[in-house]
């Protein structure tokens, strides 16, 4: 192995945003991909299902890629795999549960290609041309979570993955603190540490507190209990089964993604569920209401949509009824706070009692400030790159590291696509690679861009006006129309005068033309109508002229 390596670190996602985590560690000519996550659409991404990273740089350098290394099985870390593996034929490394969830994700997308998965555990060591890759257990809300250590002669590049330090963590969730300290003693060149909890002082509350809160809710509920949670939040799902068992209740599991995760986790020993506790949803009528618990999630493992259907009595399997207790054991996704509160209102209107974050039934899966400091103490990094979080979280993490003792020159927050290069005792950005959002709408990957989103935004704001007119080029005359069709702009029956004047305006524009050149005629119709309609309504609908020859 060489005594001096060229080390570069690049984020293709996860910087300045929640989700879409994907980081690259380059050692000499080797590229190691750390996670491959998706992000749910932000406000303004009309009709978009999910967002994944732009992998143009990887496609240009596919011969250098050593593999994709996964930290855990949450969608924001593995959800982009079906789209990426369509284009990159590279091996995927992950723990047993993570790999099983990734395979299930590929099956869900009807993925046909062969993928080489390699199951690792925290004792695995992988040898590559330029580096050695090893792993260490971390504590998160899903079992089999690991951090990744890429060992180089300049020191290790360590990516923590999602973590916290829960002193009450049971066997499946216990972190390998001793191993982390050992990695730190050997020397860590760069620490890529998750920043989601960097604004929260103290420690993240223990899962034991959440478990007790849930048991209390189950004990006090008079009728049915409906628990809404993320499908992949296995620790929370275990709490539900424990609380139901302690209170003599039965549990029905509802939702395709939840059922899939439940079966994978159960069959591989990551859930402990008494046999007689599970019942089919079709049999809940056979039990008294105070013995029934329904565990539910919706499409893509996100529970709020399912709750809305249940509150509106339009869910296929179960609806909320008077006296139910609805326990929302999931934080809202980014930008989803308004939707959460709207959903809670709907549930209350349906006659149920809502229990959410205000009572301790849900604790974050990410470490707060004291835990981030503990990771710094264990790893003792030469350089820190805060990752995984919105920009204010990255800045809070950087400030925390400064208070801990790292100088400003040793802390770097690169933007997505910026290349951070380590050269001896300095770190700096030395270039930029393509990095952005690839939008998934239905089966289309990347065919919706900023122009399409702009059009969708315009349509949502002021609607569309379609102008249909038939012209005879030879006679330079109108043969039919103009007919104006309004959708989402004005209600035509109540705006007859406006439509008549707009029609008259279009006719005037056409009749003034000496020659009928389609492109310029369409442009004049757009400009003329746009000005007129804005003067009359202070709105700018999308104007779509359709000219036919006849």
Describe the structure.
Its main location: cytoplasm. Its EC number is 3.1.-.-. The chain is of the alpha/beta class and 550 residues long. It has 15 helices and 25 strands. The chain has 3 domains: 7-202 and 364-447, Metallo-beta-lactamase, Chain A (4-Layer Sandwich), CATH 3.60.15.10; 207-355, Rossmann fold, CATH 3.40.50.10710; 463-549, Ubiquitin-like (UB roll), CATH 3.10.20. It has helices at 56-60, 75-78, 81-84, 96-108, 177-186, 207-220, 234-246, 256-267, 304-311, 337-349, 369-379, 391-404, 450-462, 496-512, 518-537; strands at residues 7-13, 22-27, 30-34, 50-53, 65-69, 92-94, 117-119, 125-127, 132-137, 146-152, 155-159, 188-194, 225-228, 250-254, 292-296, 325-328, 353-355, 381-387, 418-423, 426-432, 437-441, 444-448, 464-472, 477-487, 542-549. Helix 5 links the parallel strand 11 (155-159) and strand 12 (188-194). The longest helix is centred in the C-terminal third of the chain and has 20 residues, at 518-537. The protein is globular.
Write the layout of secondary structure elements.
Elements: E1 7-13, E2 22-27, E3 30-34, E4 50-53, H1 56-60, E5 65-69, H2 75-78, H3 81-84, E6 92-94, H4 96-108, E7 117-119, E8 125-127, E9 132-137, E10 146-152, E11 155-159, H5 177-186, E12 188-194, H6 207-220, E13 225-228, H7 234-246, E14 250-254, H8 256-267, E15 292-296, H9 304-311, E16 325-328, H10 337-349, E17 353-355, H11 369-379, E18 381-387, H12 391-404, E19 418-423, E20 426-432, E21 437-441, E22 444-448, H13 450-462, E23 464-472, E24 477-487, H14 496-512, H15 518-537, E25 542-549
Parallel strand pairs: 3-5, 5-6, 6-7, 11-12, 12-18, 13-15, 13-16, 14-15, 16-17, 23-25
Antiparallel strand pairs: 1-2, 1-19, 2-3, 4-21, 8-9, 9-10, 10-11, 19-20, 21-22, 23-24
Enzyme class: hydrolase
Domain Metallo-beta-lactamase: 19-212
Organism: Peribacillus deserti
């Amino acid at each position: 192995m060489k005594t001096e390596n060229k080390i570069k670190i690049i984020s293709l996602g996860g910087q300045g945003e929640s989700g879409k985590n994907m980081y690259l560690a380059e050692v000499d000519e080797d590229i190691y991909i750390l996670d491959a996550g998706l992000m749910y659409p932000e406000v303004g991404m009309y009709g978009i299902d999910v967002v994944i990273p732009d992998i143009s740089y990887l496609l240009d350098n596919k011969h250098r890629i050593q593999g994709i290394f996964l930290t855990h099985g949450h969608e924001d870390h593995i959800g982009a795999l079906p789209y990426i593996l369509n284009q990159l034929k590279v091996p995927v490394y992950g723990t047993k549960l993570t790999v099983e969830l990734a395979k299930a994700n590929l099956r869900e997308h009807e993925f046909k290609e062969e993928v080489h998965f390699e199951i690792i555990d925290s004792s695995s060591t992988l040898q590559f041309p330029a580096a050695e890759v090893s792993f260490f257990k971390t504590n998160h809300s899903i079992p089999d979570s690991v951090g990744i250590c890429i060992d180089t002669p300049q020191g290790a590049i360590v990516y923590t993955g999602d973590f916290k330090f829960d002193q009450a963590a049971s066997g499946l969730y216990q972190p390998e603190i001793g191993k982390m300290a050992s990695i730190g003693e050997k020397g860590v060149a760069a620490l890529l540490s998750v920043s989601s909890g960097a604004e929260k002082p103290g420690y993240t509350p223990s899962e034991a507190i959440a478990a007790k809160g849930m048991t209390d809710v189950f004990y006090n509920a008079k009728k049915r209990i409906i628990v809404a949670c993320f499908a992949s939040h296995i620790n929370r799902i275990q709490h539900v089964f424990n609380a139901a068992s302690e209170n003599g209740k039965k549990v029905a599991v509802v939702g395709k993604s939840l059922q899939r995760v439940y079966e994978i986790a159960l069959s591989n020993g990551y859930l402990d569920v008494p046999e007689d506790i599970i019942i089919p949803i079709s049999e809940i009528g056979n039990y008294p209401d105070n013995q029934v618990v329904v565990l539910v999630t919706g499409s893509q493992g996100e529970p709020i949509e399912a709750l809305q259907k249940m509150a509106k009595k339009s869910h296929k399997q179960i609806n909320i009824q008077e006296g139910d207790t609805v326990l929302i054991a999931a934080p809202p996704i980014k930008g989803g706070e308004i939707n959460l509160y709207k959903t809670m209102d709907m549930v209350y209107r349906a006659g149920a009692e809502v229990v959410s974050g205000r009572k301790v039934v849900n604790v974050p899966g990410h470490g707060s400030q004291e835990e981030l400091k503990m990771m710094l103490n264990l790893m003792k990094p030469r350089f820190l790159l805060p990752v995984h979080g919105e920009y204010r979280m990255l800045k809070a993490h950087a400030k925390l590291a400064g208070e801990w003792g790292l100088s400003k020159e040793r802390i770097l927050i690169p933007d997505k696509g910026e290349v951070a290069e380590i050269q001896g005792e300095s770190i700096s950005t030395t270039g930029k690679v393509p990095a952005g959002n690839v939008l998934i709408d239905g089966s289309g990957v990347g065919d919706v861009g900023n122009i399409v989103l702009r059009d969708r935004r315009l349509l949502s704001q002021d609607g569309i006006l379609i102008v249909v007119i038939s012209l005879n080029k030879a006679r330079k005359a109108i043969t039919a129309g103009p007919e104006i069709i309004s959708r989402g702009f004005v209600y035509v029956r109540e705006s007859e005068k406006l439509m008549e004047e707009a029609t008259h305006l279009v006719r005037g524009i056409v009749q003034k033309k000496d020659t009928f050149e389609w492109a310029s005629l369409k442009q004049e119709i757009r400009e003329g109508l746009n000005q007129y309609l804005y003067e009359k309504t202070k709105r700018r609908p999308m104007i779509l002229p359709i000219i036919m020859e006849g």
